[in-house]
Amino acid sequence: MVIVIVLVWQGVISVPFLGDKQQSATQSATSSSSTDDTSSKAKTQTKKKTEAKKNSDAATEAQKAQKNRLTAKSLSLITDRYSSTDVSVSAMYLGDGSSAASSNTSSADIANTSASRTQFVSAGLYLPVYLVAQANGGSALASAQDMMSTMSNDSANQAIADCGGFDAINQWLAAHSYADTTLGRNFGDVQASNAGYENYSSTFDAVRMLAAVDAAGAANLMNVDIAAEGVTIPAGMTVHAHRGQGIKDTWNYFAIVSTSHGKAAVALATQNQGKETAAQIMSDVLADIDSQLAKANE
Question: How many angstroms separate the CA atoms of 254 and 206, rounded?
């Protein structure tokens, strides 16, 4: 492009000419501006496509979770055969098993039987201590990891001390919506239990703790052989579990189970039932979870 400027000075018309260099600079600036606009538009379009894909993936996962959500009806039929008040089950679908569960869960994701919010003696429930220790890190987490893999009461009590004691544990639990769970004594302290100090939780809290532990990638620390204690495990099912017994003839099971159809968290609390009955209930529950996962995947 040629730019001509006309100057009038004392009746003489002067027409300076902008040379090739200035023309070139002008053309270059115009071209650069055009290129920047094109690049900016391309980046914006790429960002929009990425966000759209994320939203689409999230919607797909939500639909999948809705489809595979476990139901309480068949689980309630099991617990009601024994006791609607002294036996409780809560279960939650955790995904297709290809990765750790999401830590984002709601009560709508959980299949609960009628006593799911009843506070049971939380024998064998080391999960709250682990979650608090994980948040604290350091020596507390080291003790808690040993506790999870060995079910050592000594390691559990050390982790509690490292986290600041019962008050600190209970405050963390309350702040994270585990309203049914409180610690009032050290693990294995029978004298304190007899004196009325106890650890309590519900299956509703416990199953959400299992989901949180799985989301943290720590399910493989739970390796109690519940089959050796009389629990029948469906063919092809992998079980990572803890088990506990306490006063009132309490027998509890807490497990993360996986099949080719998906993964689920299962919490069973019983009292006044005994070891053999509790093992049979857990066998029935695992069979039902196996069936529900298979049907949801059809």
Answer: 8
Cα angle: 162, vertex 121, 280; to 5 degrees: 120
Candidates 218, 228, 225, 251; CA nearest to 239 is 225
Q: What is the pLDDT of residues 34-69, one digit of tens each?
A: 566 666 777 777 777 777 666 555 444 445 545 558
Please report where in the chains the tokens 């409780």 appear, as a residue.
Answer: 88
What is the reported pLDDT for 29? 54
User: What digits encode the pLDDT tens for the residues 100-123?
Assistant: 444 456 678 899 999 999 999 999
Q: Please give the C-alpha separations between residue 236 and each of 29, 102, 262, 291, in angstroms, as whole numbers.
A: 68, 24, 11, 12
Q: Are 231 and 283 spatial neighbours (Cβ–Cβ below 8 Å)?
A: yes
CA atoms within 13 A on the CB side of 281: 31
- Candidates 246, 255, 264; CA nearest to 69 is 264
- In contact, 133 and 162? CB cutoff 8 Å: yes
CB burial readout 162-197, b (16+ within 10 A) else e: bbeebebbbebbeebebebbbbebbbebeeebeeee
- pTM score of the predicted model: 0.77
Query: In this predicted model, what pLDDT tens digit does every residue of 260-285 receive, in sequence order?
Result: 999 999 999 999 999 999 999 999 99
CA–CA distance, 44 with 77 (Å, rounded to integer): 55
Strand, helix or coil for residue 13 = strand
For residue 265, the model assigns a pLDDT of: 97
